[in-house]
Amino acid sequence: MAEINALVIAEHDNAGIRPATLNTITAAKQLGGAVTVLVAGSGAAAAASAAAAVAGVAKVLHADADIFAHGLAENVAAQVLALASGYSHFVFAATASGKNISPRVAAKLDVGQISDITKVISPDTFERPIYAGNAIATVQSLDALKVITVRTTGFDPAPATGGSATIETVQAVADSGKAQFVGAEIAKNDRPELTSAKIIVSGGRALGSSDKFNEILTPLADKLGAALGASRAAVDAGYAPNDWQVGQTGKIVAPQLYVAIGISGAIQHLAGMKDSKVIVAINKDEEAPIFSVADYGLVQDLFSAVPELVAKL
Amino acid sequence: MKVLVPVKRVVDYNVKVRVKSDGTGVDIANVKMSMNPFDEIAVEEAVRLKEKGAVTEVIAVSCGVQQCQETLRTAMAIGADRAILVQCDDELQPLAVAKLLKALVDKEQPGLVILGKQAIDDDCNQTGQMLAALADLPQATFASKIEVADGHASVTREVDGGLETLKVKLPAVITTDLRLNEPRYVTLPNIMKAKKKQMDIVKPADLGVDVKSHLKTLKVSEPPKRGAGVKVADVAALVAKLKTEAKVI
Question: What is the dihedral of CA A305, A211, A285, A287, to 10 degrees?
């Protein structure tokens, strides 16, 4: 087999790399060859340095230009393709950003993409969930080049320090000119990011309103230093913002502790959180499917149980 | 302006799929099949754009077996004007579908292609982006709002951490997220009307596309089962378990 040489496309905010990139680097290391990280950003020298410090990274490629300021798929994919020669594996995190960019790279290389891998079996064979996690497929790539997205919960984060990779500045590609960033509404808060949080407090439709959702869950999340999540039903009802949604079509999470409050446990929600280490469910309906995956179930009205829990912690 | 809406026939989202005992796949014999829910949202959005006057014709496309005709009839019952079936009995993977769609984009010259962000069977989330790359079009994925004016589309996207708005030059490819709209119920008169609408059937070879597989499925297995734990009597017992047994707080 040809030499294994992985290119990880870093997700970053120019000042540092996002946690998902660390899990992605772990998956790339398991391929068995060298790992290079691409940081395409705007004023992203600090992010490139952070990538160079990650244990196990051999080299960082740093492309800097205004056109990367908002991570537009057209431009980042073009940058990856411009550097593609010599790499056997192109590895992205299976996040909104990674999923947006990676298929463009695969299509231009005329190869299939292996989405959302949860396990590396060999450099060409991987496990990935299908049917909302109700089945696990073992798939083998038939292409010489592999484009992969990594489900971050399947891999431990690589240590953020201990590495001393060289940083090579590479020439940025030209703007595609086809898409333009207009604006963003990114929620600002001090809570940990949902996909990398150690503890998640998640609420369902039983909370009844946006006000109650915040009133009941915020004190518990504050006390535990937890991120806040929600079921699809709660998001659809407008109790919580869409980026809090945990489930097959939302975020896939695997914290140390997942506290499901007033969540019945639809299949698509379970698909997003069942790999959590410890699951607690609080629900007054003792028949709720969430109890079938919970390590600790408490059958009680959440409006009395949660304040009591906050008081006792 | 024409809109092309690719739709996929998948196992209905309410069906709990079972892995076959020989590990070759999931059992889809005698299982209810429906339109991929994200694609249904795409059809609805295209029809709404037509109702607003931003679009003149909505063309539904499906790539797959003969029974995909039912899925296309559903799309036309929602309001698509005509349909194209690219009929193929072989397994079609996202790159092959993207190539077939690219050939149809060349032929039909739509101003927009709107499709679901992912299919709920293979959960790939690839086809729209691949089509955009092959056709050299801009893309706006995971859309929760679309506005079309002056040869551009303003698209609000669901991204990690919140929302982002992009302006893309038409023609463009847009993939739909869940909260873009709520598809209408199809009515009996519209189902009857859909039966009379035009459906063209072509083969991949007619479009000059090689639909070979790039991935081989070696095995399909059940996910590891997570057993139910214990029920605790009250909040105090829960706190005690979390502190002393699970040691997570």
Answer: -120
